[in-house]
Amino acid sequence: MAALGELFRRLPDSDLTFVKEDVTPAALAGWPTARGWRWVEVAPDGTVNGMAALLPLTGWSDHVAELRLVVDPVTRGRGIGRGLAQHAVANGVRSGLLKLVVEVAARQQPVTEMFLGMGFTGEALLRDHFRDRSGELQDLLVLALLTEQMFEAMTAVGMVDLLEGQ
């Protein structure tokens, strides 16, 4: 978990705005027993380049999970985020989840385009929904993937192989 902690320490303040969990070393030690699933992309030297988490909701929304994605700024643009997100989606579908949601800052156009390219669609634009670390109000996009309706789109982007292969 130390390498994962290092990933969070390398994130700029603008990214830390979206980290909802406590990522102190003590809290990270408990992650293996926390609800949901987490995957990391590790370089040959042991550095964690990215992490995806799929956190199922409870109660009436137990068919839904929130996808969270963090990629080291140094390694962005290399497909790490897409690979982690695809892996999370495949596992969510395999687990019977019917809907996956992801929250993205409206100004993060490359991230939004990646999720739209994977078959997610816009579900909500929440204006002035959060303050970034400098206190400036920012818009939040909520994107969703309805898994039963999007299976064909998943096939088109190569995600069906993940579903069948694991």
Task: Give a brief rundown of this model.
By secondary structure, the chain is an alpha+beta fold.
Tell me about this structure.
Helix content is 33%, strand content 31%. The chain has seven helices and six strands; from the N terminus they run H-H-H-E-E-E-H-E-H-E-E-H-H. A six-stranded mixed β-sheet has the order 1-2-3-4-6-5, sandwiched between helices. It is globular. It starts with a helix and ends with a helix.
- The residue ranges in which pLDDT falls below 50 over 5 or more consecutive positions are none
Distance between the termini: 24 Å
Mean pLDDT comes to 84
| Percent strand | 25-35%
Work out the number of β strands.
Answer: 6
Which H/E pattern describes the elements? HHHEEEHEHEEHH
Number of helices: 7
The dominant shape is globular
Main sheet?
A: 6 strands, mixed
Helix content: 25-40%
Radius of gyration: 16 Å
Structural class: alpha+beta
The largest sheet has its strands arranged as: 1-2-3-4-6-5
Secondary-structure topology with pairs:
Elements: H1 2-10, H2 13-16, H3 25-29, E1 37-42, E2 48-56, E3 64-71, H4 80-94, E4 99-105, H5 109-117, E5 121-131, E6 137-146, H6 151-156, H7 160-165
Parallel strand pairs: 3-4
Antiparallel strand pairs: 1-2, 2-3, 4-6, 5-6
Characteristics of this structure?
single chain; 166 residues; alpha+beta; six-stranded mixed beta sheet; globular
